[in-house]
Amino acid sequence: MTQTVVDELVDLLKLERLEENLYRGQSRDIGTKYVFGGQVLGQALSAAQRTVEGRTVHSLHAYFLRAGDIDAPIVYHVERSRDGKSFSTRRVTAIQHGQQIFGCAASFQINEPGVEHQISMPEVPRPEDLDPPDAIDPAALSHIPAKMQRWLTDKGPFEFRHVYPRDELRRPKRPPYQHVWLRLTERIGDAQELHRAMLAYASDFHLIGTATLPHGISYLQPNVMMASLDHALWFHRPFRADDWLLYSCDSPSAQGARGLARGSFYTRDGTLVASTAQEGLIRIIDGEVV
Q1: Is this prediction's pTM over 0.85?
Q2: 192 tagged catalytic
Q3: Which listed residue (204, 242, 251, 264) is catalytic?
């Protein structure tokens, strides 16, 4: 029986246990030049969650240190920094070819009651009222390297519905915010650990790209260099990654060849379930946009 792309992602996030606090993950080539940052985020969180019982992750803070090699496995070492009465902290180091490519700290908490409030979800159309992204014109696609063509055309594990339609090849200048509905294309199990790892994976889509919108530039341009530098993620409430979530992103600043973007995840009923932030490299080679 052939695996679906969702099954492949579930397997990708499971990891192989090598030894106490040591795990190995494989990579999936989705058409990017290097390992997709969301994959490393999801796998690192999966590794950390394997070492904690009775507590739920509430935050993750990560740095991308080196580009990941798609053709080599990634080893994740989990350091059990602290287990207190209410909180546990884990540090995860991702290693390839003997070098650290990624590092993060994750904090876990026992379930306990407290005060509650949240900001309201933006008023946007429902996902079923939005069209799927248009197919890219084959003639325009032919000018893009074959590997990147696969990134743009292959059906991945997540389905996206953009509130503001976008053209990956011709980017008009727009205000620095966007709203995207997303969900897994198939149902998965009920384990919240898996849904949180899935959200960590998906949180790397669209986020830093929000910082490019006012400038009308694209990562597809040969003189535009973009890379994630760091990533933060906070989990607020339970959710399902296989139900529609609104990813509402904005970019408050871009400067010094870096852009900052923030995101909020809402369920269909307007419940805020997670927040994220990322700074990324946005470098225009030779100082000109072509």
Answers
A1: yes
A2: no
A3: 204
Catalytic status, residue 109: no
The full set of domains in the chain, from first to last, is 5-110+127-287 (2.40.160.210)
Tokens matching residue 222:
């040969």
pLDDT tens-digit map of 85-131: 999 999 999 999 999 999 999 999 999 999 999 999 999 999 999 98
> Among this protein's residues, is 278 annotated catalytic?
yes
Catalytic one of 27, 107, 203, 278: 278
Catalytic residue among 43, 88, 228, 275: 228
For residue 245, give both structure tokens: 């979530």
